[in-house]
Write a structure and sequence with these properties.
heterodimer; A: about 180 residues; mainly alpha; 2 domains; two-stranded antiparallel ribbon; 2 strands; about 0% strand; B: about 500 residues; two-stranded antiparallel sheet; 21 helices; about 75% helix
Chain lengths: ~180, ~500
């Protein structure tokens, strides 16, 4: 997709988004007008500002048709084809990591993500990759679970139980 | 005046407490590193590391983040000079003369000048901060909701008038942030608003940190991956300590421009839309104008390295001034700090000076110490930093992604927010690629709830009179702010009108 087309698509998308928000406010029955002696109702702020967003999008569209903005004249690809694969792969790996948290827990998915990223994109050696994976688990556990006392998702019960064992060990011997 | 000295003394003592001193060291070090990495700047560092600071009390947390902010300003120069790529946008101007100096084998002199200039810029601006902050906070104590609202309008107007980005896109970005801030329960009527797809999770609203980490963590990294193609070329630069020290004598060549740059940087930094990047470019221009040998700029003039570095450091301190005294952040980084203060349970605004003197003066005291610590750390560790820069991007990138994910989850305890961060990050990346500025949206989501509340409070207080904001008898300050805001908003229109007329005259 060229930058020119992306600009058009984005402006139309944002126009629809703004109108959608205005509809959302309206259908929720929020007051978008003036309440005598009290000033604006609850819907005034989001409704009229969304209208402003819609107008800005229309403004951008007008400028697109007139070819005023640099983007509307730019026929080069929207995302550099040389690095498109890299961007997509990074994003897919990141999404996979967040998706897997529900099943295998934070620690394993973080380590797998780091490992996959370093091997697939960085082509680092196994020894560097494995030590970084182990290091990330220890670091996150120490900082968030231990010092900040934050419970991070552990995934399915089998992984949850494994961490119970580690937590017990910490309470028993290290605190 | 005497009172300021005694409060400052308390603040200094506070910053020498072991924990705070450790925080200063850690912050400066982290900042130097983050600033030096191409693609990462203070705003990314502060956004990504904010969740980690819940480990310590608010004063120590803000000391850490403020130290990181200065550190990043110093660090940006390292890659500007040694790699020829700015470590952060704030160090763009440093490349102009830093790169030629490095090519001529004078990288050590350039690095030294950058460090010394940063120190001078930092020190001058902190002294100015100490002098300006208490009277400004005192004045702000008289502010009611009308003045607060007018000030926020002024803050947003600076983006339109001085931001330099596409106008409709800038306004869109501001409005988007303001509308996103309205998601969740209305604070005055208690009604739920903008609950997208009827998802219960939206009732709690969209946290500013989710947006900030999404945009400055995920979105920015995707942008960096694309623009660097995952590779950063490092040319090793020979830097030794002995040559380093011997270049100290060149200080007199750039002392004058540095001091000018510091004062300029401080004032430019206080404007929300301006900040460190334009300040450093302006300072560079100023140094060139006043130079006896303007032709040598761009070819390795040492003042060309010193002037922008001094200004960007001063601007980072300057941007703290409106944040601490008025509750209006002077830069995206301070917008995130302000959001952090709300999470820590502090109420930003003029009352902060009266209610939390320990916090405010601890922070001010720490600025003095941090500035000193950064210059020492910087000078001592530059040869090491130059080597660290060779760290592969394919290790740094996943680590930042992981910190974004764990940081957001640790702050909000909801996987929903992690997904939202991912979506906002991707959206921010796409928008930014089309020249939609993202900083106004971040500022707007932080200020949005405060702006809406102050607007509605004013109107309720004046029994629904919309002219309460421009009533010269009751709210002269609000009126003045709104007039300046209007002028700022009309400024781009005036510029384009003048350009058109000039074109016609030529034709």
């Amino acid at each position: 997709m060229s930058t020119r087309n992306a600009e058009l698509l984005m402006a139309v998308g944002m126009l629809v988004f703004s109108l959608g928000m205005m509809w959302n406010i309206h259908s929720d029955g929020l007051i978008i007008g003036w309440v005598p002696e009290r000033g604006p109702g609850a819907g005034v702020w989001p409704f009229w500002l969304s209208l402003g967003m819609a107008l800005c999008s229309v403004w951008t569209l007008v400028r697109w048709f007139k070819g005023t903005t640099a983007e509307s004249r730019n026929q080069s690809p929207y995302i550099d084809p040389e690095s498109l694969g890299l961007v997509v792969l990074s994003f897919v790996l990141l999404t996979a990591m967040i998706f897997l948290v529900k099943y295998i827990g934070t620690y394993l998915s973080v380590a797998l993500f780091l490992g996959a990223y370093m091997r697939l994109i960085g082509r680092h050696s196994w020894s560097v990759t494995l030590s970084m994976m182990a290091g990330s688990i220890v670091f996150i556990y120490f900082l968030f679970e231990w010092q900040l006392a934050k419970y991070l998702p552990k995934g399915l019960p089998v992984f949850e139980d494994a961490f119970l064992w580690i937590d017990n060990f910490r309470w028993e011997y290290l605190m | 005046m005497l009172e300021i000295f005694s409060l400052l003394g308390d603040g200094l003592l506070q910053s020498f407490e072991p924990l705070n001193l450790f925080m200063i060291f850690a912050g400066c070090l982290a900042g130097l590193f983050i600033g030096a990495m191409p693609g990462l700047g203070s705003v990314n560092g502060v956004a990504i590391l904010l969740p980690v600071t819940f480990l310590v009390p608010p004063t120590s947390a803000i000391i850490f983040l403020a130290a990181l902010y200065y550190g990043a300003m110093y660090g940006g120069a390292i890659s500007s000079i040694t790699l020829g790529i700015p470590g952060a946008s704030t160090a763009v101007a440093t490349v102009f003369d830093g790169k030629p100096m490095a090519r001529q084998g004078k990288a050590d002199q350039a690095l030294m000048a950058a460090a010394i200039a940063s120190f001078i810029g930092g020190t001058v601006s902190i002294v100015m901060f100490t002098l300006f902050a208490p009277p400004l906070a005192n004045l702000a104590l008289k502010f009611g909701p009308q003045e607060e609202f007018a000030l926020m309008i002024l803050a947003f107007a600076t983006f339109i008038g001085l931001g330099g980005d596409d106008i409709p896109k800038t306004i869109f970005s501001i409005l988007l942030g303001l509308v996103m801030a309205a998601v969740g329960f209305d604070i005055i009527s208690g009604k739920p608003r903008l609950i997208f797809f009827d998802l219960v999770e939206f009732q709690r609203g969209i946290g500013f940190l989710v947006l900030a980490i999404g945009i400055y963590g995920i979105g920015e990294m995707l942008w960096t991956i694309e623009s660097t193609k995952g590779k950063v070329q490092v040319d090793t630069v020979k830097v030794t300590w002995t040559r380093f020290v011997s270049s100290l004598s060149r200080i007199k060549e750039y002392l004058m421009t540095t001091s000018l740059g510091a004062i300029l940087g401080f004032f430019v930094g206080t404007l929300p839309a301006a900040g460190a990047t334009p300040a450093s470019l302006m300072s560079y221009g100023l140094a060139k104008t006043f130079s006896k040998d303007p032709d040598s700029f761009g070819k390795g003039n040492i003042s060309g390295v010193a002037a922008p570095e001094s200004a960007n450091n001063a601007a980072s301190t300057g941007s703290m001034l409106p944040m601490i005294t008025l509750g209006i952040p002077g830069s995206p980084t301070t917008a995130i700090l302000l959001g952090g203060m709300i999470i820590w349970g502090l109420r930003p605004g003029p009352l902060l000076f009266a209610e939390q003197p320990d916090f405010v003066w601890g922070l001010i005291g720490s600025m003095y110490v941090a500035n000193f610590v950064t210059v020492v750390l910087n000078l001592a560790m530059i040869p090491i930093f130059v080597r660290v820069l060779a760290m592969p991007f394919s290790i740094l990138t996943p680590i930042i992604f992981i910190l974004c994910f764990v940081g957001v989850f640790a702050t909000t305890d909801r996987m929903f927010d992690v997904w939202l961060m991912l979506a906002l990050g991707l959206g921010g990346y796409f928008l930014r690629k089309l020249d939609y500025p993202v900083a106004p949206a971040v500022l707007a989501i932080v200020l949005g709830p405060l702006a809406e509340r102050s607007m509605r409070q004013s109107l309720i207080g004046s029994r629904g009179d919309p002219f309460t904001f421009v009533n010269p008898a009751e709210h002269p300050i609000a009126l003045a702010c709104i007039i300046v805001a209007l002028l700022l908003m009309l400024y781009p229109a005036y510029l384009s009108f003048r350009k058109k007329r000039a074109k016609k005259a030529v034709a």
